[in-house]
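Tokens for chain A. Residues wanted.
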């Protein structure tokens, strides 16, 4: 269950529970809140002493040291297991730890990081727009563990070429539906592309997203 939790702003030292794709999103939440990440923890022993986003991944036992102000639990961590672990240590939700989906209230401003089905890793994606936005969409896909199948672009001159190692083909190819998600990666063409995808029967938020959307 999502809770609305008031926390203080500033240089709060946090630990992220879950060195996974959901953990990447918590890094973004920390940046919005002005928090300092000190490390990740994960129950997967093979990850210990490696790093994620430049932060060391440690054994969850280190949490008992309480060398931090707040623990943020990734959406992809088994929440029942996490709550049991927190209860055993004596941590209190809303005081010692929160879940990444919780609404965070800072100085009367509410920040939330909702994580819908698009956060699942392994998705096969197509990027609509082989330009600057396309590069940003590639970063988004790689961050969340999505496979990039190909690019489509409205510019005929680009058809048959490649972009960052991926083929660029005509938008009509989308009708094959051989993918899970479309990332629209053109700011100037957003309105027209959204309209075209709608005419093809694709639904925003389900079949396609915009590259500047918050994965919330």
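Reply:
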């Amino acid at each position: 269950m999502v809770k609305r939790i008031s926390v203080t702003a500033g240089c709060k030292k946090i630990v992220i529970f879950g060195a996974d794709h959901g953990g990447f999103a918590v890094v973004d939440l920390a940046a919005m809140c002005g928090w300092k990440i000190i490390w990740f923890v994960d129950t997967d022993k093979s990850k210990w002493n490696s790093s994620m986003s430049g932060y060391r991944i440690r054994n969850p036992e280190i949490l008992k040291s309480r060398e931090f102000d707040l623990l943020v639990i990734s959406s992809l961590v088994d929440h029942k297991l996490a709550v049991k672990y927190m209860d055993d240590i004596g941590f209190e939700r809303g005081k010692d730890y929160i879940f990444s989906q919780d609404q965070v209230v800072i100085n009367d401003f509410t920040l939330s990081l909702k994580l819908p089905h698009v956060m699942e890793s392994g998705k096969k994606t197509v990027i609509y727009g082989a330009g600057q936005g396309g590069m940003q969409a590639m970063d988004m896909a790689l961050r969340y563990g999505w496979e990039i199948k190909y690019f489509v672009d409205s510019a005929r001159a680009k058809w048959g070429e490649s972009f960052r190692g991926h083929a660029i083909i005509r938008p009509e190819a989308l009708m094959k539906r051989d993918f899970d998600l479309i990332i629209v990666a053109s700011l100037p063409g957003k309105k027209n592309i959204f309209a075209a995808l709608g005419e093809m029967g694709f639904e925003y938020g389900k079949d396609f997203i915009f590259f500047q959307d918050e994965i919330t």
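The chain has two domains: 4-111, 118-210. The mean pLDDT is 83.
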